[in-house]
Amino acid sequence: MKLIEVQHVTKSFRGQVLLDQANATFEKGHIYGITGPNGSGKSVLFKLICGFIKPDQGEVIIHPNYRAKNANFPSNFGIIIDRPGYLAGHTGFENLKKWAEIQHKISDQDIQHTMRIVGLDPFARQKMKSYSLGMKQKIALAQAIMENQEVLILDEPFNALDIDSVNDIRSLLLDYKQEGKTIILTSHNQEDIDLLCDQVYQIRNKKLELVAPKVVTKPKVTV
Amino acid sequence: MWQKSYYPYVGYVLLCILGIANPFHISWINSVTIWDTLFLRFYGVSVQGGFSLLSFLFYVVVFMGLVYFFQVYITDYLSGRFYYAAIRNRSLYRLFTRLGIRVGVWAITLLVGLFLLTTLIGLASGQSLEPKLTVKADVGLYQVLYQFLINGWLQSMSGMILVFISAWLFKDVSYSLVILGLLVLAILPMFNVGSWLPAGLNSMGYISGQWKDLIQITAKLVGYLIIEISVVIYIFKKKDIALY
Amino acid sequence: MFGEVLFEVRKKLTPMFGLLWLLTLIAIISFAIYKSQHYILRDTLEYFSFVLNSALPIIFPIITVLVYVATFSGEVHHRFLVYTRMRRPILTTLYIKLLANIILTFLFFFSLIYICFLFAYYIEPHIGIAKYEPAGFGLTKDNIEADTYTRYTFTQLLQYGTITYSILYSFWVAMNAALYAGISFFLVLFIKNRFLALSLPFIIYVITIFTLISLDLEIYRLNYVIFPFDRVQDPLWKPFIPFIILLLILLCFLLYVKRNPSKVDSFS
C-alpha cells in the first residue's frame, strides 16, 4: 500500500531552492532512509510530509487511512523533527503525559512502559532542564512511539545516544517493521542506514534520488 | 502541594485582592453597595471622566495580566514542542479551537472569580447587596454586569488572539514584547481615539448610561474578533509552520 | 578590556539601533505635537513635560530592554555565550557586555531626552504649535521663572540654568534606563524563558507602581521618580530612594554571578 507519495515537490526558502521536483513513494511496512549532506533539505522533506510546510509546487499525498480530507496533519504518525522540544520545568514523564492527554489514547502505565523501552526511568524526579542531550532525545523518541503510532518519521533518532541505546532502538525499529509499521528516518551514520533500511533516498543537488537498495549481509543486531 | 509554578498565579490573585480591597482608594468611601465597588474598582479608563492612574493600572494588572499569562504560555508553546502537539491534532484549526475553548474558559473563570471576590470583599466591608448603583445615577445594574461579563469576556478573548497572532507571525520574542507594550498603551483614551482600538473597552468608565453605547462596544469587539479569527485562518492557510 | 567594551558598543551601533532611536523620538515628538493642539500651556517647561509625559513613562522598561538586552538574550538562548568560554573567561565577557549594555542604553536615552528638551525649548517656540497663556495660570513675566523652579521635581535645577537642568535631567533618565537595562541583563541570564526574562522588568515596573499607589506611597512610584511631571515638587533626594534600591538589586545580581558562575545555567 502506498502510504506516502511525494510528487514533483519543489520547495524554496528565501529564494534558495532546497528541493527541486522531488519524487518518492513510501510503502507500508518498510523502513526508508533519507540521506544527504547537512542543509540539503532532509528536515524540510519531513516537514512537508507532516504537513507543517507546504510545497511551492507539487504535492504530498498521504493515504486516506492516515489523513482525513480536511486535516492539515496525518494521523497516527509519530515524529521527531528538529531539536527536542519539551517543558523544561517538568519531568520526562510529565512531558510525555501532557502530549498523551491531547488524544487520550494511552494510560500512565503505557507511558511508563515506553520510557522503560527507550531506557529512561519513568519515576525519575529530575526535571528535563537537567537532562543530558541523550536523555532529551530519548524523550523525543518516547513521544514518537508511545501511542503505538503506525508511521514513524524520525529525524536523526540516534543523535546523542550511547552505543547500547543505539542497538536497542535499532532492534526496536526492526521489530516495528515486523509488526507492519512504516519508518522513515535520517541518519549521518551509514551503519544505521545499512542495518535498518529497505530503501534509501538521497538528496543531492536539490534532487531526491532513489539509491538502489544495497544487498548487504545484515549482521544480527545485538540487544 | 504548593509548586513554584503556582506562585505567579498566587501573586496575581493577591494583586487583584489589593486592587479591590484597597482602603486608600478614595472611591472606597463612596461604595455603598457591592455594585458600586464593582463599578469603581474596574473603572479602568474613560473618555469623558478624568484619568486615574490607579484605575488604569488596576485594569492593566487584571485584564492585561490574563493576556500576559497567555502570552508567556503561547510564546513557549510555539517553540520546538509545538510540532509534537500539532501532529496529535488533525488540523491547526482543531488545535486553535481547543486552545480557544481553553482560554475562553480561563477568561470566564477569571471574570466570575473577580465578581465573587468583589462581592465577598464588599460584604465583608459592610457594603450591601442591594441591587442598585449609588455612585452614578444614570447607570443601571444590568449595564454594569453586561459590561463586566460580556464585554469583559470579549475584550479578554480579543487580547489573547492578538498575542497569538503576533507570537505566530514573529519568531523573535522582542516583537511579542513590543505588542504587549502597544496593547497597554492602546488602553489609554489619548491613544485609543474614538475607542476604535480593541483595548480597554470593557472599562466601566465607558458606561455612559445608554445601552446603545454598550452594544456598540460589543459590536466593535465582535467585529475585531471576526477580523482576528480571519487573520488566524489566513495565516494557517498561507504560512508554513516555521517556528524557528 | 575597555577596548573590547568600545568594540562591543561600536558593533551594536547599527542602522537598526539608529532606526529604533529615531522611531522612538519621532513617535514621542509627533504625538506631543498632535496632542498639544488641544491644550493651553503655561510655558516651554510645561511643553517639555507634555512631550515626555505620554507613552514614555508607561513603556519605559520595554524600550530599555530593546536597546541591547533583546539581542543579548538571543546570544544566551542560542548558547553563543557558552562558546565564548573557550576564548575568554566568561566573567570578562559578561562585564564587557554589561558595560556595553549600560553605555548604549545610557546614550540612547540621554540623547533622546536631551533632544526632546531642545525641541520643547528652542524648536517648538519657533514653529508655534502649542498655545501658551501663562496669564490663565496666574503667571506673569515676573513670577513665571520662580514658578518653574518649584513646579516639578528636578526643576529646582533650573535655578542654575536651562542647560544645566536639561543635561542633569537627561543624565538622570539615562542613568535609570541603564539601571533597568542592567537588571534585565541579569534576568536574561537567570531565566530560561526568553519572553519572560525580557518582559519581567516591565511587569515588575507596572506591579510596583500599582502596589505603591495602592499603599499610598505615590512619591516612590517608579514612573514618577523618572518622569516627575504629574505631581507637585518633591525634594531632590526622594527619587534616589527607589533608584538606590534598584541599584542594590543590580549589585546583588552582579555579586551572585561573580561568586557562583557555575550555578548560572546560561553559562553551560
UniProtKB/TrEMBL annotation, chain A:
Superkingdom: Bacteria
Return the InterPro entries for the record: AAA+_ATPase (IPR003593), ABC_transporter-like_ATP-bd (IPR003439), ABC_transporter-like_CS (IPR017871), ABC_Transporter_VariousFunc (IPR051782), P-loop_NTPase (IPR027417)
The keyword Transferase appears for this protein: no
Q: Would I find ATP-binding among this entry's keywords?
A: yes
Please name one Pfam family that this protein belongs to: ABC_tran
Q: Which GO terms describe its molecular function?
A: ATP binding
Q: Which UniProt keywords apply?
A: ATP-binding, Nucleotide-binding, Transport
SUPFAM superfamilies from the xrefs?
P-loop containing nucleoside triphosphate hydrolases (SSF52540)
Identify the taxonomic lineage of the organism of origin: Bacteria, Bacillati, Bacillota, Bacilli, Bacillales
Q: Which SMART domains match?
A: AAA
Q: Which residues form the ABC transporter domain?
A: 4-223
Q: What is this protein called?
A: ABC-2 type transport system ATP-binding protein
TrEMBL record, chain B:
Keyword Phosphoprotein attached: no
List all membrane-crossing ranges. 6-26, 38-62, 99-124, 144-170, 177-197, 217-236
> What are the UniProt keywords, alphabetically?
Membrane, Transmembrane, Transmembrane helix
Transmembrane recorded as keyword? yes
Entry protein name: ABC transporter permease
What species is this protein from? Paenibacillus shirakamiensis
From TrEMBL, chain C:
Superkingdom of this protein's organism: Bacteria
Q: Does the keyword Zinc-finger apply?
A: no
Q: Transmembrane region positions?
A: 16-34, 54-73, 94-123, 167-190, 202-220, 240-257
Per the record's keyword annotation, is Membrane included, yes or no? yes
Q: Which UniProt keywords apply?
A: Membrane, Transmembrane, Transmembrane helix
Task: Supply the name of the protein.
Answer: ABC transporter permease
